[in-house]
Amino acid sequence: MPQEVTEAYVLQRPARAVGPVIFASPHSGRDYPAAFLARAVLDRQAIRSSEDAFVDLLFESAPALGAPLLAARAPRAFIDLNRAADELDPAVIEGIARAPHNPRVTSGLGVIPRVVAGGRPIYSGKLGLAEAEARIARFWHPYHQALAALVEETRATFGQAVLIDCHSMPHEAIEAHSRPGQSRPEVVLGDRYGVAAGREVVDRIEAAFAGAGLRVGRNAPFAGAYIAQAYGRPMRGVHVVQVEIDRALYMNEARIEPLPGFDAFRSLIEGVVAEILRPSGLALAAE
């Protein structure tokens, strides 16, 4: 399969695209710059807690099955590709004026994150504005240029595009948002409550995960962030569905290691991808 590798991303294309579906993983990057690690006050294990570890590997079958896969290389703790480029946090970047209230920035999760999971600070001081802008120029813009080009190319070819934005979620996030006696979802699909994708598209994706035996929820606790907001335009033929998979299904969250059953779970996800890409599936649902 054709492959494009840059410092910002890896793009694997299928030999032949079978439909309008694109898979992308903006938070599974694990190329930690040495200078960044040296500056951080957290050890390497702690700093990886925000990473959607191994998600790109879960969906790696997509190109062989007929859909492109775009995966970030830069880690989320270094730059968050699921934030707007102007979501700058004055608490971690020098020279930034306080902007209107933004809950993501306020919580330390702007485009240059201030904290990792659990609200643990990454730095002991602030970064210079020039350094923040350099990260955005080197990693954020190339990733989004590649993603936007894929979306437009796919829409031009098939008349629509369906972007599946692949993520993982901490198991405790599901526990925290579940009521006693309530069935906890293992996969959460976020379409910003119908704004980012057509209902038929989300139904089709839900059916693929449910058919593999996974419990599926929608929009709670994750409805979709910047990518779903910025790219999802169902009326223009562009649908975005954020997929969050419970990390406890395939990895040891404390050690950030695959579980012994990782390969079996990856095979299960391969079956989900194949079902999503099945002829007369999403191509028809998106019309």
Quick take:
This protein is of the alpha/beta class. The protein has 11 helices and 12 strands.
Describe this structure as you would to a colleague:
The chain has an eight-stranded mixed beta sheet, sandwiched between helices. With 287 residues, it is of the alpha/beta class. The protein has a domain at 3-30 and 44-72 and 143-285: Aminopeptidase, CATH 3.40.630.40. The chain is globular. The longest helix has 30 residues, at 129-158. Helix 8 packs antiparallel against helix 10 (262-276). The chain has helices at 34-39, 44-47, 55-58, 62-65, 103-106, 129-158, 171-176, 199-211, 226-231, 262-276, 282-285, and strands at 3-5, 9-12, 21-25, 69-72, 115-116, 120-121, 161-169, 187-190, 216-218, 238-246, 251-252, 257-258. The two termini are 28 Å apart.
CATH class assignment of the domain at 3-30 and 44-72 and 143-285: Alpha Beta
Can you tell me the overall shape?
A: globular
Overall average pLDDT: 92
Residues in helices, as a percent range: 25-40%
Radius of gyration: 18 Å
CATH homologous superfamily (4th level) name of the domain at 3-30 and 44-72 and 143-285: Zn-dependent exopeptidases
H-E string: EEEHHHHEHEEHEHEHEHEEEHH
CATH topology of the domain at 3-30 and 44-72 and 143-285: Aminopeptidase
Structural class: alpha/beta
- How far apart are the termini? 28 Å
**In total, how many beta strands?**
12
Strand portion: 15-25%
| Second CATH tier, the architecture of the domain at 3-30 and 44-72 and 143-285 | 3-Layer(aba) Sandwich
Low-confidence stretches: none
| Main sheet characteristics | 8 strands, mixed
Strand order of the largest sheet: 1-2-4-3-7-10-8-9
Number of helices: 11
